[in-house]
Amino acid sequence: MFNLFSAKDMGIDLGTANTLIYIKDSGIVLNEPSVIAMDNRRSVTLAVGSEAKDMIGKAPSNISVVRPLQDGVISDFDRTADMLKAFIEKAVPSTKMKNFRVAVGVPSGVTEVEKRAVEQTVRNMGASEVYILEEPMAAAIGAGMDVDSSTACMIADIGGGTTDIAIIALGGIVASTSIRHAGDKFNDAIIQYMRKRHALLIGEKTAEYLKIQVGAACLDIDENGDEIIKTVEASGRDIISGLPKTLEVSNRDIMIALQESVDMIIDGIKSTIEKAPPEIAADIASSGMLLSGGGGLIHNLDQLIEKRTGMKATIAESAYEAVALGTGMSLNNIEKLKIYATSVNKR
Prior knowledge:
Layout: E1 9-14, E2 18-23, E3 27-33, E4 36-39, E5 44-48, H1 50-53, E6 63-66, E7 69-70, E8 73-74, H2 77-91, E9 100-106, H3 112-124, E10 127-134, H4 135-142, E11 153-158, E12 163-169, E13 172-179, H5 183-198, E14 200-201, H6 204-214, E15 231-238, E16 244-250, H7 251-275, H8 278-287, E17 289-292, H9 301-309, E18 313-315, H10 322-330, H11 334-340, E19 343-346
Parallel strand pairs: 1-9, 9-10, 11-17, 17-18
Antiparallel strand pairs: 1-2, 2-3, 4-5, 4-6, 7-8, 10-19, 11-12, 12-13, 14-15, 15-16
Helix pairs in contact: 2-3, 4-10, 5-6, 5-7, 6-7
């Protein structure tokens, strides 16, 4: 499958919504939803990733389809271990799985017990060294920020379960904020809005589709000063008749639905700056901040942040893959990685 492990380095972004695996010299070799399907009668894994995600909302009672990470924390240790094991086996031939080094990016809300559980799972796969990185640090490294400089840099990593905002200088996190308003909450907000505003029941997949297609933090304005409206079709069940229904949904609808979550993220950015020493705040004022994660790609979120804070916001070049890239790249300098990592486990 891959002729690798001359380098013996692997980076893993264990995200609430998606898990990505990075192999040195091969790049991102796996990008799958963090979902696992289990047969309850036989206690066996039926599917992981995209295949399991396709079963959500459709599985019979004997099959459990779960996302073992919720709101940035590991809600099911065993299922997380099973899922991670399946992903690693999918990404790398088992014959190559000996004596390799791994850096794992985890949500900042993960506890020490959960970190040890992740370490143990990866070590059981044959890893000789396991390093645990918090996602904002990994994202900053992956986005090419100079995390070792005395000049501070700021990043907001908007993932599936959490938005992790951090100010980094001299290889460490100086100030940080983690809030549980991110991709999953965006989807929930869209589902609730469609129910209340249009009396339409939609599922998580439809909500995610709407978020990606017409999601916006604020609307674009044309040369006449009018809002530019875009629409897509959404299908669901009519609450009143109980029958299937399709209607047009606009970017204005989704902007309204996302407003509360976007406000929470901007408040988190402000509060992180307030926690920082004045000299650090001065660095951020001149250099601005970076947005990473899938949520960072919400249309015009960077513009709204700039408008509300007066601080320039830039979207990372590989926003979606930043954490995975950062975990892999960090293994290029093990001595520095030992400083960055919140947990180190050697065999």
